[in-house]
């Protein structure tokens, strides 16, 4: 496997997944304005999957163009609820609104990753998990949100599968690392083949 890659992200969860899997990395956030990209793609009727792929590629390419001959990994995760893109909440009211939308329903969590070198994508992969949220009362949703710190809420969307968020679901189908934002198995396969 490669000695070290650059993770085009400030996500501690993604960094932890790489560390736990023996992939050495340094973090260099891309600072891509995701909301501008998302709204532009939504106007073009792009699916949540296409939006996720494009954002992962944009992040990886941006950081990669500044780091010649380095391998850069970009990633993006979105929630797809019946074709509607659900983004991370900006505040607690938005978080509550998202939880109400997902309440009692099945949705997809889509995670895309892109590896770039010299400003160009050389590999990408997208994985989906299916999650079915239990039916909660508004009071129960408020109680759940009260347990989540601001830092975690804004970093990981409205649920953290590795923490309190697991209790929100009646059914989870898919790779846990995908749900946490990094389908590591496929990344490792790629890195091992391209030393």
Could you walk me through the main structural features you see in this protein, from its secondary elements to its overall organization?
The protein has helices at 12-20, 34-43, 48-64, 92-102, 138-147, 150-155, 176-179, 184-193, and strands spanning 5-7, 25-27, 72-81, 84-86, 106-117, 120-133, 169-173. By secondary structure, it is an alpha/beta fold. It has one domain (5-193): Maf protein, CATH 3.90.950. Strands 1, 2, 3, 4, 5, 6 and 7 form a 7-stranded mixed beta sheet that branches. α1 links the parallel β1 and β2. The longest helix has 17 residues, at 48-64. The radius of gyration is 17 Å and the shape is globular. The termini are close together. The mean pLDDT is 91.
For the structure shown, list the relevant keywords.
single chain, 195 residues, alpha/beta, Maf protein, 7-stranded mixed sheet, 7 strands, 39% helix
Brief rundown of the structure:
This protein has 195 residues and is of the alpha/beta class.
Mean pLDDT across residues: 91
Question: pLDDT below 50 for ≥5 consecutive residues: which ranges?
Answer: none
What percent of residues adopt helix (DSSP H or I)?
25-40%
Strand content: 25-35%
- What's the CATH architecture? Alpha-Beta Complex
Class by SSE composition = alpha/beta
Biggest pleated sheet: 7 strands, mixed
Query: N-to-C terminal Cα separation, in Å?
Result: 5 Å
| Count of helical stretches | 8
**Whole-number total of structural domains:** 1
Q: H/E series, N to C?
A: EHEHHEEHEEHHEHH
State Rg.
Answer: 17 Å
**Top-tier CATH class:** Alpha Beta
Describe the global form. globular
Number of strands: 7
Briefly note the CATH topology name. Answer: Maf protein
């Amino acid at each position: 496997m490669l000695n070290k890659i650059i993770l085009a992200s400030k996500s501690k969860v993604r960094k932890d997944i790489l560390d736990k899997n023996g992939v050495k990395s340094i973090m260099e956030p891309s600072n891509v304005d995701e909301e501008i990209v998302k709204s532009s793609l939504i106007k073009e009727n792009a699916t949540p999957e296409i939006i996720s792929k494009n954002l992962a590629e944009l992040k990886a390419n941006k950081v990669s163009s500044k780091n010649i001959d380095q391998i850069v990994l970009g990633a993006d995760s979105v929630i797809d609820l019946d074709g509607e893109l659900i983004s991370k909440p900006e505040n607690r009211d938005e978080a509550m609104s998202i939880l109400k939308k997902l309440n009692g329903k099945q949705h997809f969590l889509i995670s895309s990753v892109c590896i770039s070198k010299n400003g160009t994508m050389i590999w990408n992969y997208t994985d989906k998990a299916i999650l079915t949220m239990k039916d909660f009362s508004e009071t129960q949703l408020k109680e759940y949100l009260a347990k989540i710190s601001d830092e975690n809420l804004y970093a990981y969307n409205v649920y953290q599968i590795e923490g309190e968020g697991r209790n929100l679901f009646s059914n989870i189908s898919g790779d846990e690392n995908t749900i946490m934002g990094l389908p590591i198995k496929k990344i490792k396969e790629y890195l091992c083949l391209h030393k």
